[in-house]
Amino acid sequence: MDLTLTPKHRALREEVDAFIAAHRGAAPRPGGGRKRPDRKALDWQALLLEHGYFARTIPREYGGFGAPHDVIELAIIADAFSRAGISPGIHNQGISMLVPTLLEVGTEEQKRRWIGPTIRGEVIWCQGYSEPGSGSDLAAAQTRAAVEDGHFVINGQKIWTSSAHFADMMFLLCRTEPEQPKHAGLSYLLVPMNAPGIEVRPLRTMTGRAEFNETFFTDVRVPVDQIVMGRGQGWHVANVTLKYERLLLGDPNKLQQRFEAIRRMMEQPGAEGSRLLDRAEWRDRLLRLQGEVMAARHHNLRLLTEQAEGVDSGLGRFIVKYHGTMLAHRLASLALDAMGSSGLPYEPQGEAAEDDAATTWQIDYMYDIGLIIGGGSSNIQKNIIGERGLGLPREPKAAAPAGRN
Amino acid sequence: MRFGLTEDQLLFGRSLRGFLADRLPLDALRRLAEPGTGFDAELWRGLGELGLHGLLVPEEHGGAGLGMLDAALAAEALGYHAAPAPFAAALVMAVQAFRSAGDAEQQGQWLPRIAEGQARIGLGFAGLAGQTGRAALRLEGGRLSGALDGLMDGGDATHFLAYLPDGRAALIEAGAPGVTATLRRSVDRTRALVDLDLAGAAPVALLQSSNDPLAAARRVRDAGRVMLAADTLGAAQNMLDRAVAYANERVQFGRVIGSFQGVKYMCADMATMLEPCRAMVWYAAYAQDAVPEEAAMVASHAKAHLAEVGREVARLATEVHGGMGFTDLLGLHYQFKRITFDRQVLGGPERCRHDAAVAQGWIAA
């Protein structure tokens, strides 16, 4: 354990704090991964990239800052932004899931072509994984891609495609080798959303908004080189992406941002003039969550160190999504409780404008349940933790009802 | 720059766990726990040979001069095996007490004796740590009178270090005139508490050289809290490991029960709660030596959080074992009670979280 701040680290901390103080007026509200970044968000992103506060360790030739991997530096930056309640930049599926996937298994050309525009927020990605008949059982995907004269020709349907209505590109898991066994028949394609034959239908959720979509493919053609790794290797690539998706969904810096926002709210005098923070029952609820967020953050530093040293964290990594999404929902729950009746007015603004604080918390509180379910539901996570993390046996297969496969 | 253990620390943890696994099979643990003193001379000697007595004692006083993270790894191993051995108070808090408030002569006199395993010091606070029970001490004309309940590591202790409400600490010799030490066998038979009744006892040392005695006393309390958190981490990990092993061998309905999602999910929930605690304990221990501005807050948070997680793991792991978990036969209850003890001593979670709020300036003390 050596977390000694070198003079270089101290200088970085001062530099980040000074940056935030100087530029905080230009920052968009934190969050916003559910909308296409507006001008303000894109400018902020460019500023963060320029200073190395975003994509810090991504090589320069791919559009990153190219700094060597240093856990402390990343922690200093994340901490400064969450303490200040300032947006740490855009976190969407392309940036947090596809980019690390390409860095791990993409070709040189794919890295050069896609990573830069994606981390700048210019190219928005959506994820074509779930289907009506394959949710938790992802490898049962039936969307087909047949090869015809140098193209994949895609037919089928995806569901829960968040951001599909404004995305530029999709990373798509589909069946290219139907004669192969289930897991060996899949490929991972990169598909432009403006290709003829793609139809996106919004799917309204419990928040009253349409964060998700159904996406239909009718003879959609993409060149055969728009594939990550080879044909039949889609399951492997999909799992690389899932690894990063699950780390994103359990991101402790988001938990810390939320915790700080609730702390600030509870520090404000309420209608009766007293602060919730001064009342033992409220303070204890906040403190309890603070302890849990603290454990999650330290755990993350451990995982980052193991990653930098090439150690597979196994169990330590498998728990992140389940742990983080449940904790996020409990944080949002406390925020609602702290707002009480003044947290009930609910006016979602859609794509055009920013939501007020009460509406944002209500949306988070509901959307969190979507995140508990999506990316591999909590039950799927518990299977993974139990089977791959702890070495417990798989559930024996039971027969499907007659007439189903 | 890294967040993790060194090779030396991994090796130290492994060798200590190996030693304890060898010395404390269930029948031996039962025998050593029976008297409820939390002490066994042979085990104590063995731990001394592994360097535990002087772990935190500076080298110039005959110790190894290691840090709180090393001590936390030791506490974790002791908790894992429910070892009946004085540690948190006798070998960590007492050392910190001399280092933070003892003068040079007191350090020179007592630290080597701790490192040699000759001085085993039970320790308790009158106030400061959320202890319940009697806590009324008077120091008049150099003599200590009154009562102090629940001194940790009190069984077979050679000395007692009693913290006064003002943060000064008096070292009393067990068996000296005016000292009545009553052993309280706790629900955790691997660790004992002692109630002290003092009638004009003469301290052999008064630790008062710190500029801010209350702050020095709180550092000792925080060191103890980190050790108890680490002890719970070990005990809970033991219970989880045994639950997983049991779920992998027990057959019902023609299947090992670990293949049932109901059982599997209990194990997954335990792992999900417990795994992040490891890094939290590492950091809390490290912060005591290296991050003074956060030390108090993270110590109290680690103690509170581990107490909450420990209680859940203790219940779930017992449940996974079915009726067998509830019996005395498997001895799972030693770790269960260890977790209970860690939670209730030196301030329960509510008290610890209150102290964390004070430490970060949310409220006044």
Name of the CATH architecture of the largest domain in chain A: Up-down Bundle
CATH class of the largest domain in chain A: Mainly Alpha
- Binned, the helix content of chain B reads 40-55%
Mean pLDDT of chain A: 92
End-to-end CA span of chain A: 52 Å
Main β-sheet description of chain B: 4 strands, mixed
Structural class assignment of chain A? alpha+beta
What would you note in describing this structure?
Chain B: Belongs to the acyl-CoA dehydrogenase family. Chain B: Residues 6-118 form the Acyl-CoA dehydrogenase/oxidase N-terminal domain. Chain B: Pfam families: Acyl-CoA_dh_1, Acyl-CoA_dh_N. Chain A is α+β, with helices and mostly antiparallel strands and 405 residues long. Chain A has three domains: 7-91, no CATH class; 125-233, Butyryl-CoA Dehydrogenase, subunit A, domain 2; 250-389, Butyryl-CoA Dehydrogenase, subunit A, domain 3 (Up-down Bundle). Chain A has helices at residues 7-23, 39-51, 71-84, 93-105, 108-119, 234-249, 252-267, 280-308, 315-318, 320-339, 357-373, 378-389, and strands at 125-128, 144-148, 151-159, 169-175, 186-192, 198-203, 212-223, 227-228. Chain A has a four-stranded mixed sheet with strand order 1-4-5-8. Chain A is globular, with a radius of gyration of 22 Å. The mean pLDDT of chain A is 92. Chain B is built from twelve helices and ten strands. The mean pLDDT of chain B is 96.
